UniProtKB/TrEMBL annotation:
Annotated protein name in UniProt: Uracil phosphoribosyltransferase
Matches recorded under SUPFAM superfamilies: PRTase-like
GO CC annotations, alphabetized: cytoplasm
GO molecular function list: GTP binding; magnesium ion binding; uracil phosphoribosyltransferase activity
Top EC class of this enzyme: transferase
Cofactor: Mg(2+)
Entry keyword Transmembrane helix: no
Record-listed uracil binding positions: I195, G200, D201, A202
Domain of life the protein comes from: Bacteria
Keywords: Allosteric enzyme, Glycosyltransferase, GTP-binding, Magnesium, Nucleotide-binding, Transferase
EC nos: 2.4.2.9
Record's keyword annotation contains Glycosyltransferase: yes
Pathway where it operates: Pyrimidine metabolism; UMP biosynthesis via salvage pathway; UMP from uracil: step 1/1
Length: 210
């Protein structure tokens, strides 16, 4: 598999994903599993964060020890389903700055249109992690990354739960520099743009809407 796409094959990730796919899983369990799996995916997605060394005193001696370098992580949720991944990632990176991007699809042009954007300042100086559970067509993900790059971001990773080949290809063409981390690469999109076999509408399943 290319460096552009990382599938996290850890047994705990795969087990939790199967429970999330099952349609009889309750909203409460889905939410809990999403929180747990986001920790494991976030651990992988953030493994290339830069480190620097500082001097500290342990109870026994002085030493130089690694800490995260530079400005805090910018965590960007693509509304609304991205919000389900925020809590877990914020447990890993509690000082992260958080931004939100909202896009809808224009029915005439089928292109994503921005309706909301509030992101941290100094994106050019921060590592950026974009979160959205379902990488389906890739149109909104690619548009969100366009928008972040327009604001200076250049060190960007993308975390999702499930990806479709169409979405991965769209992102690879539009943003070959953005590494995608996912729990699984599914078979295809159906004619309504749902990932198959998938898990349904991630937003509806995590928020209990229909
Ligand atoms: N968004 C979802 O929530 N589910 C899909 O299968 C595709 C896009």
């Amino acid at each position: 598999m290319s460096e552009h796409l990382t599938i996290v094959e850890h047994p705990l990730v795969q087990h939790k994903l199967t429970l999330m796919r099952e349609k009889s899983t309750s909203t409460a369990s889905f939410r809990q599993l999403l929180r747990e799996i986001s920790l494991l995916l976030g651990y992988e997605a953030l493994k290339d964060l830069p480190l620097t060394e500082i001097a500290i005193d342990t109870p026994l001696t002085e030493m130089r020890a690694p800490v995260l370098a530079g400005k805090k992580l910018a965590l960007i949720s693509i509304l609304r389903a991205g919000n389900g991944l925020l809590d877990g990632i914020l447990e890993l990176a509690p000082a992260a700055r958080v931004g939100f991007v909202g896009l809808y699809r224009d029915e005439a042009t089928l292109k994503p249109v921005q309706y909301y954007c509030k992101v941290p300042a100094d994106l050019a100086d921060r590592p950026v992690l974009v979160v959205d559970p379902m990488l389906a067509t890739g149109n909104s993900s690619a548009a969100a990354v366009d928008l972040l790059k327009e604001r200076g971001a250049h060190d960007i990773r993308f975390l999702c739960l499930l990806a479709a080949p169409e979405g991965v290809e769209r992102m690879r063409q539009a943003h070959p520099d953005v590494r995608i981390v996912t729990a699984a690469l599914d078979e295809k999109l159906n004619d309504k743009g749902y990932i198959v076999p998938g898990l349904g509408d991630a937003g509806d399943r995590m928020f209990g809407t229909k």
